[in-house]
Amino acid sequence: MSPKISVIIPVFNGQKTILNTIKNVLSQTFTDFELIIVNDKSTDRTLDILTKVASHDKRIRIIDKQKNEKPFIGRIDGVRIAKAEWVTFVDADDYFYPNALQKLYEQTAKQPHVILGSYCKVYDRLGWSRSKPINVVPKECLEGEFIFVKSKFRLAFWGCHSIFVSSCAKLYHMSLFNDIKAINFKAIHSFDDTLLNLLLFEMVNKIVFIKDPIIDYRYGGGTSKFNKLVLPDLDVLYQYRSSLLDKCSDSEKENYSNLEYINTIYSYFLNGLIIERWSSDEFNIELENKKVLPVFKHCIEISTKYNLTSATFFLNLRNKELCYKHISTEANRLRFKRLIYRSIGAFLAKL
């Protein structure tokens, strides 16, 4: 008999966290599930850990990939062999609440396409800190108190507002994946959750929400705006979004997507100056390397439409010295602001 839920975990070099995440899933109060772990050609001890733990629980299935293709394709690979009617995803360093699967599965009787739970942000780079439960449904998606506006929710995956775009804390009906399982996707690391939901939610007609927290979602991983892969990945997202916009001609989606493209590219160069301390020469080299990306060229074309500091960056590109002066001035301002915040924090810590 097939399990009721397929839990899928993509992992790359997760030896520090993957065992605890697996134990967390296996300790769920709801037990009728399979656990599919996709090892994305890890170079550390991840595979040894997976092999050992799988030998003790028949619900665990391992996909050992011979090529590193990033989390997005890893999730799709897991879906391709999944046996259950319902699918959920967990990152290799996140944790379900003990009754998470039970709470999610109870809602399947309402026959939705997707069930969404709330979540808690967890920060552990500078010490363990958990936020209060964050509801996945902002006010702009509700009319009155209970009526859900699906069209507004979908806009989250176009960068329009702050709905939780992660693939975690969600239970998807397998039918949503029928049209995308056979697609030969490009590897993508950043924006992988956004892209997955962007494709899936075009087919969603009924959604159920759970106010209770489902998962502790860990922040501070490798998908920051200064990740070296951010701009190539943004270019992949841009290409998929462009093809969808060609089908729907939605000016609101296009406008918000443009703002996200501009701000992400700007943040990449801004953080390069703040974090990596690029010199003007290093800045110019990085600029020349990234200007060939279609999404970058797109931002140059559209920047005149937006009265933003980030848009000004693209307007100054014809003059490299002016461009560097503009962004380095902003970087120095933010660097000074960060220094002040750290000084205040150090002072308060002594009280």
Automatic annotation (TrEMBL):
EC numbers, comma separated: 2.4.-.-
Keyword flag Translocase: no
Keywords for this protein: Glycosyltransferase, Transferase
Signal peptide: none
Keyword Transit peptide attached: no
Domain Glycosyltransferase 2-like: 6-180
GO molecular function annotations of the record: glycosyltransferase activity
InterPro entries: Glyco_trans_2-like, Nucleotide-diphossugar_trans
This protein's name: Glycosyltransferase family 2 protein
